[in-house]
Amino acid sequence: MDIYFYNTLTKKKEKFVPLDENEVRMYSCGPTVYDYSHIGNLRAYLFMDSLRRTLKYNGYKLKHVMNITDVGHLTSDADEGEDKMMKAARRENKDPWQIAQYYMDVFLEDLKKLNIDIPEIIARATEHIDVMEQYVKKIIENGYTYQTEDTVYFDTSKLPNYGILSGKNVEEQKAGARVDFDSNKKNVSDFALWIKAPKEHIMQWDSFFGKSYPGWHLECSAMGYKYLGEEFDIHTGGIDHIPIHHENEIAQAQGFCGKIPARFWMHVNFLKIDGGKVSKSLNNFYTLSDLKERGFEPEVFRMFNYSSSYRNALNYTWEGMDASKKALIKLKEGYKNHLNGKDDIATEVINKYEEEFHQAINDDLNMPQALSVVWELIKYPQKSKRIADLLLKFDTVLALKIDEQMENNETEKNIPQEIIELAEKRKKARENKDWAESDRLRDLILEKGYTIKDTKDGYEF
Ligand code: AMP
Ligand code: ZN
């Protein structure tokens, strides 16, 4: 069956056929490991996983690379500010190597908890410095750069089509630029390829540019080339990558070998929380542990994500999570009913639903549509093991562990939102060592009929 994906590069839904008949080669921009992943970040990897699983469902083998950024990503994507790793090291009074190792491990654990298939190749930037150095030398040799005292810049005005992905050219970027853009750059869209390391920058290497380190964008071009070649099938990331990071990856590849590295560029839209941004200052930087604390297993968050296409912004609410949890419990029960069913089902019926599901996922990963096929099957009046088997097959894409009992699904754990808010307030009070307020809130929660216990990670009811 044909597959169609929306391609940001051509701004159209296009038929997808890989360069190699049997294998799809793809690259996903991974995390910068300077903090925990919040649920917005995790939406991006759930999208990546749906893509992987859909391709596998269609019979393709995968060669999929995901990078781990552990050096060179400055506070702003456009090369301003400090290296995020250094900033985190200072915040936690550790060295950046410890920071990288810790947050990378937590990230990979999060993927496991969400039942996300780990890509075949996980590539850490700091383990590919030599690959990046070779890559940048070729860009320099090909005449696409200029150097200042402390930075090698890519000269975007050397490319006729810089801005091809976002549709902004160099001149337009100049016109829209803030007046105070780094005056060492010739064009506002130019970006750092290689940077001289000040003494305090702990992650630094001896290279053609003295003691130095690579710019963030370079790692994806160089590691993509190393593992997937000059041209591969799909490149994924978040929509925030379109105007700078992916534009710059394309520029680098063109400077390196004259080619746009991937044929399909796919981008996942943002998760918003109560309609706004995810941020620490808004106190809504929720992680999987926060979800668990409120009684939601990771697969509930997966289910929640299927309520919208990856291309639409998705608004996160606790009410929405409640509904997803109930739906998932119902789905698992429905599967069991079919598993124990003794009715006969005609092969045509099975084939019809198989086809509908397959069509939905092949239509640019239309998960809401795929789920509606699942619900029709769950509600099918005859109960049959054949339907249960088909649901299990669908679950190779949905990855909801449909045949497993969910932890934490007892109804008494469905704590009302009001009580959870009081518990969160109390947690904050305890963090601030405001014991009187903490006791007051505990009594209030008790008055409302709930008992709260403090645990190592926070609280439970
Ligand atoms: P970072 O670790 O900051 O580089 O981000 C990791 C990934 O999460 C990137 O692919 C971003 O595009 C993506 N991302 C960041 N915030 C959100 C959000 N609120 N919703 C969805 N994806 C996000
Ligand atoms: Zn990248």
Key words describing this protein structure:
single chain, 461 residues, alpha/beta, Rossmann fold, Isoleucyl-tRNA Synthetase, Domain 1, 3 domains, 5-stranded parallel sheet, 5-stranded antiparallel sheet, 18 strands, flat, binds adenosine monophosphate, binds zinc ion
Note down, in words, how this protein is organized:
The protein folds into three domains: 242 residues, HUPs (Rossmann fold); 119 residues, Isoleucyl-tRNA Synthetase, Domain 1; 44 residues, no CATH class. α11 packs antiparallel against α12. It is flat, with a radius of gyration of 25 Å. It has 461 residues and is an alpha/beta fold. The strands form six sheets. Strands 7-4-3-13-14 form a five-stranded parallel sheet, with helices on both faces. Helix content is 43%, strand content 17%. β13, α7 and β14 form a beta-alpha-beta unit. The model has no long low-confidence stretch (mean pLDDT 91). The protein starts with a strand and ends with a strand. The structure holds adenosine monophosphate and zinc ion. The site of adenosine monophosphate has 14 residues, from α1 and β13.
Question: Helices, strands, pairings?
Answer:
Layout: E1 4-7, E2 12-15, E3 23-28, H1 39-57, E4 61-68, E5 74-76, E6 80-83, H2 84-92, H3 96-113, E7 121-124, H4 129-141, E8 145-147, E9 151-154, H5 170-175, E10 191-196, E11 205-207, E12 210-214, H6 216-228, E13 232-238, H7 242-257, E14 262-268, E15 271-273, H8 288-293, H9 298-305, E16 314-316, H10 318-339, H11 347-362, H12 367-378, H13 385-398, H14 417-431, H15 435-447, E17 453-455, E18 458-460
Parallel strand pairs: 3-4, 3-13, 4-7, 13-14, 15-16
Antiparallel strand pairs: 1-2, 5-6, 8-9, 9-10, 10-12, 11-12, 17-18
Helix pairs in contact: 2-3, 4-6, 4-7, 6-7, 9-10, 10-13, 11-12, 12-13, 14-15
